[in-house]
Design brief:
223 residues, Glucose Permease (Domain IIA), eight-stranded antiparallel sheet, single chain, alpha+beta
Length: 223
């Protein structure tokens, strides 16, 4: 039977919400309250729907990570849109395997670390805002690359990519920080994509079209 672990302390609330969502929730709720006090029923109801959706979007559920030796977990919730081997990449030294996960506005948008490692560097790149499900989004869009190194010297790069609607990338880790598999590391507001670049010796266990859950789904393992 597979054991599980908590990479982060469990939340003390029944419906955990990412801190980054508080300003959006408060703004929408305040606007809704003003509309209601003014007697504008239809706009107030629309505001209530928007407020509830924002709460839904910024949900941040606790996740337990399967304790599978050498396992790699998904860095994001969503649909796998690419699994490919590359001869070279700006995010990897030499050949690598790339996995891309697209997050719709209905997915949890909190991103998580795929493996136990140390953060080598964090590099932000300004760019465009084309649809995140397109291949060119990996290089053309605004993105934030987190470079990781495992205890055995394996290099991993996790890239948060802005999309057509997304306009804010949040990263909560710093160079030199030790991180755990499944640990929260940031989020992307309002729909986007996460790419992870792995060494070619990594064994991939997912396919294009498969849906994965950040921190809980095994996407591969070290060999």
């Amino acid at each position: 039977m597979t054991n599980f672990s908590w990479p982060d302390p469990p939340s003390q609330t029944a419906y955990p919400v990412a801190r980054a969502g508080f300003p959006f929730i408060l703004a929408a709720s305040f606007t809704t309250a003003v509309l209601a006090l003014l007697g504008l029923t239809v706009p107030a109801l629309l505001g209530l729907v928007v407020s509830l959706f924002i709460c839904f979007f910024f949900r941040d559920p606790d996740r337990v990570v399967p304790c599978i030796e050498n396992g790699l977990v998904a860095p994001a919730d969503g649909k796998v849109v690419a699994v490919e081997e590359l001869a070279s990449s700006r995010f990897s030294d030499g050949p690598c395997r790339k996995i891309s996960i697209f997050m719709s506005v209905f997915n949890v948008h909190v991103n998580r670390i795929p493996c136990d490692a140390t953060v080598q560097q964090v590099r932000y790149f300004p760019g465009k805002f084309v649809s995140a499900n397109l291949d060119k989004a990996s290089t053309d869009n605004e993105h934030n690359a987190v470079y990781l190194i495992t205890a055995s010297g394996k290099s991993v790069c996790m890239v948060q990519i802005a999309g057509l609607i997304a306009r804010r990338i949040i990263c909560g880790v710093q160079p030199g920080q030790s991180v755990q598999r499944g640990q929260r590391m940031g989020l992307i507001c309002f729909g986007s994509r996460v790419d992870v670049y792995l060494p070619v010796e990594a064994k991939i266990s997912i396919q294009v079209g498969q849906k994965v859950t950040a921190g809980a789904s095994i996407i591969g393992e070290w060999t």
